[in-house]
Write a structure and sequence with these properties.
By secondary structure, the protein is of the alpha+beta class. The chain has five helices and five strands. It has helices spanning 2-18, 62-65, 68-71, 86-89, 102-111, and strands at 31-40, 55-56, 73-77, 91-96, 115-122. The protein has a five-stranded antiparallel sheet. The chain is elongated and about 75 Å long. The N and C termini lie far apart (61 Å).
Amino acid sequence: MKKILLSIFILFAIMLNAGAQNEVPTEPVPFMKGVLHVKLQNDYPIDFKADSTNTVSIQDIKFLKKLAKKYGITRIGQDFQFKDDPTMLRTLTVSFSKTELTEKFIEKLQASKHVEWVEKVPVKKALKSMPVQKQKRR
């Protein structure tokens, strides 16, 4: 009986270990140049509206308007459209042209009392383990 229980335990332990994801990325995660996600503080008023392309006017967000020329802000997007979720409505995608100033721009935004967090946007890429199959035409 002890051998059977021990065998079951060992088999169970092997199954748990086999499913573990221990892969460490060998290369750094690439980020999109000139694009940041910016989460505004929860008390920041949502008195701005996005247009049909989810773009917010730079005039509507005063503290970003002051930084627009220095960092070359080209677009402010309200790309996370969850109308019932004020957190997502306060998460903006900020595109800018002066990419050589990315780190300084991040520091400036993080120092703002209106910003909760800032992060670079990772490049989305397809999984290597899922090959794309071509469909045959009939």
